[in-house]
């Protein structure tokens, strides 16, 4: 796959993402010799200096090790990511988020509204928008852009800024949501998402839209969640 010249992400970073993904998926194994700079430049359609920048970045990260006269070798085992099960209850979802780390990228109060569809519910007066990357250990597995009813956010501002949202909502009494719905679709990672999840551009991702409503049909929580395709696990019992 050739890097996109129209992307705001530099070419060498896009190439590094592809190479990093090959190591993670064990296309390139620990201790294996990778292609030469000339071969990489030809594969990705870039100058040799651009290929060298990508290799130098992964060398700095410890994923590659150059050996004089022998070439460059993979020096990092594939990342071990715990599968993320697609759950169908809020309790199970809360349990999943309690054991992950959430890094806040963006927070914006009172100036955005969730892109709800007809039938999703009615809008609250104001929302707080947050964008986060969730990780297990040091490995990111999903990016979440969520809208939370401002009145609910105000009840636990400090916690919502630092902790994952759903476990906090589940602890509130009474719970602010009475109905919940989620939709899963399959897509491809854009440049920004790929960079945050450390995967190659156009890698498969699972996108989940979650909508929580209160008893009056007001949307109190809306989230667009993008999971790495290599961590999502969907299991369903089937009638026989």
Automatic annotation (TrEMBL):
The keyword Zinc-finger does not apply. It comes from the Bacteria. CDD domains: WHTH_GntR (cd07377). It holds the Pfam family UTRA. Keywords: DNA-binding, Transcription, Transcription regulation. The keyword Transcription regulation applies. Residues 9-77 form the HTH gntR-type domain. PANTHER family: MANNOSYL-D-GLYCERATE TRANSPORT/METABOLISM SYSTEM REPRESSOR MNGR-RELATED, MANNOSYL-D-GLYCERATE TRANSPORT_METABOLISM SYSTEM REPRESSOR MNGR-RELATED. This is GntR family transcriptional regulator.
